[in-house]
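INFO batch 0412 | record 1 of 1 | parsing
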Amino acid sequence: MSALDWLIVLGLNGAIIAYGLRRARGTTTSGEWFLSSRALPWWAVGLSLFATNMDNSEFVSATGTIASEGLHFLSAHTFGGLIGVTIATFVIVPAIYRAGLYTNSEYLEHRFGPGTRVLGALIQIQYRTSVLGLMIWAVHLTLVGVGGLRPELSWALIVSLVLLSGVYTAVGGLRAVVATDVLQSVLVMAGGLAVCVAVWRTMGGWGAMVAQLESLGTTAEGLAPGLAAADLTHVGAFRGRDGTTSPAVIFIAWILISSGWWTVSHTSTQRMMGARSLWDMKMAGVLGAGVSLVILLFTDMLGLFGRAQFPDFARPDEMYPHLISTYLGIGAKGLVVAGVVSAAVSTFDSMGSSMSAVFTRDIYARFISRDRDDAHYLRVGRLATVAILVLGFACLPLILRAPTMLAAFRSVTSVFVTPLLIVYLVGAVTRTNRRVGMSGLATGGLYGIVGFVDREVVDVSWLPSWLTGQWEAFVWAVAFTAAGCALAAFHPRWRRTTGTVASGGDASPPGDASPPGAVSSIGAGDWLAKSSGELGPIRLHPFRERVPLLASPALYTGVLLAISAWLVFGVFW
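INFO prediction complete | emitting tokens
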């Protein structure tokens, strides 16, 4: 890259980081640090959700995966994202919000007991640090492949980015994170669209790309078994790396993966819980998922254009950096790399903020050091922010072993994240007993560990692939978790309802009324309970009376789902 390109990359991202440091000033209480005192408007939360969702690994991994496996990944960016955000904003997160809680793991104790809470917190930390590893590797590939940096210089820059994002996150908490995310989202959109337009124009449009793929037949290197190059444009053509998996199973798996991101991950739920009302929370989810759908639809096509232009490109995860280097000139190249770096910084700060909240509240304050003053826990949260970010580097060995970055992510997600998603759903929509949560996590998690060992560690010959395969594992994880939940729910000694339920519906009075019984009694008298009292009353919406029809989150969610159905089943299946 030229000096101008580097000036763009460092200037734009440096300005955003400086802005984050400025906005970080004045954060003095845990309520401000963890949830921004629940005062964030819908548009800020929505753009923050988009910026976090569109991390740099999304660009790199999506382009590489689609170049070798086809458009099946589109299922995650359309139906998966929208179903996930619907479950989160209409069912699970409102239950947490109404209960006066700070984290989704805190809700697990509220509903199922302390053991489920600490297990859920540990699962989240493991899950999100593995994603941090993906982002770190994606930035490295971009800086080396596009920027031409030596590997050691690339790693030095990445470590600097992690530390800088950790500093303003540690000082300012969620308020600083959301403020920078709004600016970073604009830069991410500009960079992603710039490379899409450049590649599209050079190739000559969609028709020219399809014709080129058809001419390649099955001769292109790196294609999944049983695929011709022209099959890459069809969502339902991919049948797994072994060629035997049903496209329906893959479609369901993507919905579960995306739903897990929107619900199990406190990276997303923390932003929703910082919204100023339940309406703002739902509209933020619609905005975040809708903008993600549009941008990802364009970037998903880069994998197809890349395969058409470079049929024998054998390193899928390096396709996105290669396209930037090949098709963009001076200035535009700097803008795209600035977007990639900005996407990384956005997710670094988001995960640092959310996972430090999980550690501080769900592990440290609950089980290690109870009832210290607010300033003590604020310091712990700030220190945990940097520690969480450093943990992301520990996940690199697993990522480097996998055929693609996304394959590594998929293999890990089914182990604990999908069982935890089912447990959250059971807790939010039923009044079953408190033992259900741990029972479901035990059966689902045990299956997940066995499947992971069979796939990634040692091939257990007597376990069939239809039971432990990478895609099938998601369906079985649901089945085993549901079986464990049912076993506890219908056990003769445990059938009595003992769980505490905070409804996710909107049955409460309008305005600032808090529903009776919504505040958790967990840790009554200690810092956890005191800090919950700082959050103030619950608001349903910011309107004087009822929500106008044209401002209904359900309306826009339905429209986006209809568009997704048309794209997946009508255009690309």
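INFO post-check: The longest helix spans residues 151-203.
INFO record closed
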